Each structure stands twice: as C-alpha cells, then as structure tokens.
Amino acid sequence: MMKHVKYFSLLALMALLVACSESSSSEQTYLDVDKISIIIPAEGGTETLRISSNSSWSIRTDNLDLSVSPMSGSGDADVKVSLPETWDTKENSCRLTINTSNGAVIKNVVVTQKSRYLEGFVMKVTNHVNEVTFGGEAHHADSLVILSNIPWQIKGPDWIEVYNGTRWVSLSPTKAVFNSGNDVKLDEAHTVQFRTHGRNESDDNLVGTISITPIYEGNESFEIEAVQLGRYGVVPDRVFNLCHSIACAYWKVGVAVERFAAQMANEAFTEDELTDDFINEWGIWSLDDICSVGGLEAGKDYYIYTAGIDKDGKYHLNHRIIKTQSEANQAYVAIKNVEFDGNRLEWDTEMNEYSAGYFQLTITNLLDATDATLAFLMYSNNQDLPRCQESGHFVVRTDNKDAQIITWGIAKGSNVLSGLLGRYKTNYYNRVPARKGAQSAPILKKVSKDELKNAIIDVQLIK
Question: Distance (Å, rounded) from C-alpha 192 to C-alpha 336?
C-alpha cells in the first residue's frame, strides 16, 4: 500500500510540473509588427503600423517631426505614423523603437521620407549662357530666366538690385534677399528682373557672381557671372548661337561710348593686326543693329570683337568668345512633302525624338537672313506665334512666289528652344545661285530693328 501511495504522489508531482511548464509557456511575452519599414512621400502623409502583443508596450523615436499615435498601449493596436511635407533634396530616414513593458522584446521600424526631387536636380538660366552683362549707366536692366525643379534663392554683389515684386532691393553676397517660393515646376520658367545700382565711371568692368542655390537642404547650385561695363565697354545684349549661325541682338555700352565698331573672326586676331586702321574698316554700328553670320560650323568657337569709340574718336577694344551649339540631341522639326503652285503652299511637319513642340511661321521677305536672325524674329514674336504640340499638316495661300517656311523646335523637359531651325524656301527662290560659305574672318551682316519689324508674317496659317 505504501508503494502505491508513493507512486501516485510521484505522478501528481510530475503533472504539476508539466502544468506549470505549460502555464509558463503560455505566459511568455511576445511582440510583433506587420512591417519593418514605412515609406512616406515628400508631400507628407500617414501610414498605419499594426502591433500585435500580449503585453503593454511603448514607442520612442528621435525624429521630432514624426507624429506617432498612440505612443503606448497594451495588446493589439493600430498605430498612425505621420510626417509633414518636406522640401529636402535627399531622402531622410529615422527609426521607431517599440519595447514591451518588461523589456523582454524590442522591435525596430525604419521610417523613410522620400525627397521631392528623386528624378534629379535641374537648376539653370535659359536666357544667358555664361554671364549677364549690364551697360555702364545706373539702373541699366536685364533679367535671368531661371528653370528649376528645386525652390531657389539668390545672392549676389551689392551693386546689383533685384525687383522683389514690390520694390528694388540690393543683393547681398552673403544673405539671400530674393527667392522663388515653393511653387516651382520644371515646365515653368521664372523671370527675375535685375538692374545696376549706379553708374560705372571706371575704365574697368565691375565683376561679381550671382549665385542661385536651393532654399532647402541640398548641394545643387548655379552661378552666373555678372558684369557692369566700364566706361568704354561694348558687348551684345543677347546672342543667338544656333548650330550654324550666330546673331548678336542689340548692344550694351559703357557711359563714355559714342559709337562702336564690330567684327567676327574664326580665330583670335593678333595684337599687331588690331591697328586703328584695321578696326576702322569694320564700319560703324548702331545700338539697334543686329549683327548676324551664317554658314558657321557647329560646336566651334568664334570671336566677336568690338571697339567702343569715345568722343575724341579713340578706339577701346573688347572681345569675347561665342560658341555655336552642337548638333547632338537637338530638337528639330523637319518640313516634308512640300507642294507649291504659286498660290497654295502645303506641307507636313515631323518632330524628332527630342522635340516637345515647335514654333512655326511663313514669311515672304528677309529670305537671305541667317538662321539666327530668323530665330531672333521668332523669339521676338513668339507671343503671337502658334505653338504646335505635335507633327501636322499645314496649308497657306499666298500670291508671293518667294515664300519660306521656318520651324523652331522646343526641347523636351523645359521651354528651351533648339539650336536648329527647319527651313524650306520655295522653288522660285531655290533657283537663285547658292551663296558661298563663310570667310576666314566672317563679316557681320547688319539687320536693323526696322527690317525685322518689316519682316511681317503676311501669309495666314490655315490648318
């Protein structure tokens, strides 16, 4: 009998131990989350994190902008994780750490906010290539057309003023006094007006740098040299440098310039060549004249020489290098299937892979103008020209036998005009012998503002 008692006592003890073991297993602390990473867009937003647990828990993070609700709880719960809008130009990540109350289990969740500009930064000036130049007078104005997908701010020398929409404010080399605000789009360029603060009576140019940098975090920047001409300086106000031609539109001068002479060359002149007699052969120019040269090589340097003439007739030389554009990756709109019977002009256009659209016109004069002069004509009238968005078929009626069709492609991704024009001259004009190529030292051709104004688009476009 005693043996049986001992045997049953042993069984009871073993059963108790098993029960305790099962109870301990069922009471073990656990914690789980339904995701180990959360991604929130740059525009801001909220994501849900599902917590599963048999214990109380709490959450902590080192990101003060991150909103977590609730920050603590018990058992299963849905947690809202939110971030506000960001303008950072790089991704930012932080960590959520979730702990059980007894510290037995810890889970980590990485929260990443995307940058606003994952497809790359764009920040450039579209209406000046290397520098912006002001005449020597006070309040001589110019502008920068800025294309960017990043909110930007401007710094610069204090002899330049910027118009902030209400008044003119002097720039500062250390403090940004003007910015774009946050509403920037890659297909919308922003025009900023600048002017000089005072006259430059010195023989030397005033030189500084206008810096365009992101308002928010990021290393992207764009710098353009700013120059106010000295007393005798002369430079073109705007240069149209296409692939095979160059036009210099209008001219900026110093405070002591009465007249000026200009010349273009394939190579630099030597000091011995630049005599007063040689310069005198260049001819005298008006500030309103446009100087253009065609038949140039693509992607090559050309030299524009100018000589400011003071009241005593003395020449003061300036020169700069201008490069024609490369033919590579240019927006181009071909003119095809042309039919012309002397009264009806009909054709098709075909955009290439780099084109997002194009301007188009037909004219019946200025037929011997260079592409760059015609580009300036189109640029000056682009508010009145139809902007074509796709290849098409066109018909015009004219009784003029020397009609000409011109297209100018707009590059994809921005409102930037191409370095190539499409041109077609009617058969009547094509019977005229072709002109010879450019000379070793091209002579600038004069085209006045009045001549451009008289290049009226006098055939109506009918689609």
Answer: 39
pLDDT in tens, 177-211: 999 888 777 777 889 999 999 999 998 999 999 99
DSSP 424-450: EE-HHHHTSPPPP---SSPPPEEE-HH
Determine the pLDDT at residue 25. Answer: 44
The number of residues making up the chain comes to 463
Which domains are delineated in the chain?
31-113 (2.60.40.10), 121-230 (2.60.40.10), 333-436+450-462 (2.60.40)
Q: What sign does the dihedral 50-54-56-57 (CA atoms) show?
A: negative
Is the alpha carbon torsion for 242, 244, 247, 253 positive or negative?
A: positive
Q: Which of 236, 288, 287, 279 is nearest to 261 (CA)?
A: 279
- Cα–Cα distance, 208 to 76 (Å, whole number): 63
Smallest CA-to-CA distance from 305 within 353, 329, 346, 273 is with 273
Sheet with 92-100, edge to edge strand ranges: 37-40, 106-113, 92-100, 56-61, 72-74
Could you tell me the CA-to-CA distances from 383 to 377, 379, 387, 421 in Å, in that order? Answer: 12, 8, 9, 18
Distance of CA 272 to the CA centre of its chain: 42
User: What's the CA gap between 350 and 443, in Å, rounded?
Assistant: 34
Cα(187)–Cα(190) distance, rounded to whole angstroms? 10
In 256-368, where does DSSP find H-type helix? 276-280
Transcribe 23-47 into DSSP letters. Answer: HHHHT---EEES-SEEEE-TT-EEE
pLDDT digits (tens, 9 = 90+) for 92-135: 888 999 999 888 889 999 999 887 665 567 788 877 877 899 99
Token digits for 256?
């002591």
Q: Left (φ > 0), alpha (ψ -120 to 50) or beta: where does 76 sit?
A: beta
Phi/psi at 373 (nearest 5 deg)? -65, -40
For residues 228 and 134, is the Cβ–Cβ distance under 8 A? yes
Give the amino acid at 229. Answer: L
User: Are the C-beta atoms of residues 32 and 107 closer than 8 Å to each other?
Assistant: yes
Amino acid at the residue 81: V
What per-residue string of b and e applies to 325-336 under the rule 16 or more CB within 10 Å gives b? beeeebbbbbbe
Single-letter residue type at 328 = A
> Which of helix, strand or coil describes residue 116?
coil
Whole-number Cα distances in Å, 363 to 8, 343, 351, 371, 383: 116, 14, 21, 13, 17
